[in-house]
Design a protein that fits this description.
Distance between the termini: 101 Å
CATH class of the largest domain: Mainly Beta
Number of helices: 4
Shape: flat
CATH architecture of the largest domain: 3 Solenoid
Largest sheet: 12 strands, mixed
Helix content: 10-25%
Strand content: 25-35%
Number of strands: 39
Length: 347
């Protein structure tokens, strides 16, 4: 496809500096851009590379100027690129209808505009709304709801009674609504506590590949609207996420923990159960959270502490070898002084 710089600027509410009639046919990083491509730069070092590249135009944020390139000036170049990517790389289209290999229970309600791919299994009383896409190999348990424009990639499994909102994307291999980890010790063995709740995923959520979100023991495990969850994340039973949280890969949440809005949990962190993380709380990578976190606080480390305190501890640990050497030197000096004093006293 070809689109002029002026048309692009109009779509992203930007300003063209240079020839707005130039036609752009692709989108690429500066290092690999060719003639006709659009690239972007959000700081001086990136702009220097973009200006030397073969790209025909550059999306910039800031007062950059160029005699070589057409510029499209916007408040935030990275946000603008997020808006432009679907223009140059449109998402796959899926025709409405049900593949012959799919199995759909007679009591299920599947909107005629939905796409049900090969080898899908749709259980009793499932409701699938308009333009939803099940790409293939998906199993949807009884009494589930799948919202409008939601996309399930291959082999996503949704257990019974779960509710998935509108415009939700769930990537391959993820399981929604598996049993929570609940057992009681009874006469020398672990007796399973039936997990009879469900999972509720609100609108505009994206969940990465091979993630597991467990159903509530009695109530619901809830993922708030706009939340984005990475690959390989485990969310235990009755955890409740607020809106617009960000959870990076390999994070684990124990049961009944509650997150406020706009929380950020970095990779490989573990969050203990029955905790409360306030609005805009941030957990640094590889942290072990064992206590509540107030609004807007950032924590790091194991156990996680306020980030400034943790950084001071890390610095102190780095200085520890020098401190030990100094202590040994002081001990040697003290021993030498003792020897001198003993010799004087004995004489």
């Amino acid at each position: 496809m070809a689109i002029t710089a002026s048309e692009i600027a109009k779509r992203i509410k930007g300003e063209v500096v240079g020839d707005g009639s130039i036609k752009l046919t692709g989108l690429a990083p500066a290092e690999t851009a060719q003639t006709g491509d659009l690239t972007f730069a959000e700081k001086d070092s990136y702009f220097a590379i973009a200006e030397k590249s073969l790209a025909s135009a550059v999306v910039v944020s800031g007062e950059f100027a160029s005699s070589e390139k057409v510029l499209i000036r916007v408040p935030d170049a990275r946000v603008a690129m997020a808006k432009l990517l679907p223009i140059f790389f449109p998402v796959d289209e899926h025709l409405a209808g049900t593949h012959p290999s799919a199995t759909v229970d007679p009591s299920a309600q599947v909107d005629p505009t939905a796409h049900i791919g090969p080898n899908c299994i749709i259980g009793a009383r499932v409701k699938i709304d308009a333009r939803a896409v099940l790409r293939g190999g998906n199993q949807i348990g009884r009494d589930c709801q799948i919202g409008e424009d939601t996309c399930l990639f291959p082999n996503v499994v949704i257990y019974a009674k779960c509710q998935i909102g509108d415009r939700v994307t769930i990537h391959a291999g993820t399981v929604i609504g598996s049993d929570g980890y609940g057992y009681v010790f009874d006469q020398g063995s672990h007796r399973k506590m039936l997990q009879v709740g469900n999972v509720i995923i609100h609108n505009d959520v994206e969940i990465g590949a091979n993630t597991a979100i467990d159903r509530g023991a009695l109530g619901s495990t809830v993922i708030g609207a706009g939340t984005k969850i990475d690959n390989l994340v485990h969310v235990a039973h009755n955890v409740v996420f607020g809106q617009h949280c960000l959870v990076m890969g390999q994070v684990g949440f124990a049961g009944s923990t509650r997150l406020g809005d706009y929380c950020v949990i970095a990779s490989q962190s573990g969050i203990a159960g029955h905790l409360k993380l306030g609005n805009q709380a941030t957990v640094g990578a590889k942290s072990g959270v064992m206590r509540d976190i107030p609004d807007k606080e950032t924590v790091l480390g194991i156990p996680a502490s306020p980030h400034k305190q943790t950084k001071r501890q890390w610095i102190a640990l780095q200085q520890l070898p020098d401190v030990i050497r100094k202590m040994r030197k002081l001990e040697q000096q003290m021993e030498h002084l003792r020897t001198i004093i003993d010799e004087r006293e004995s004489s």
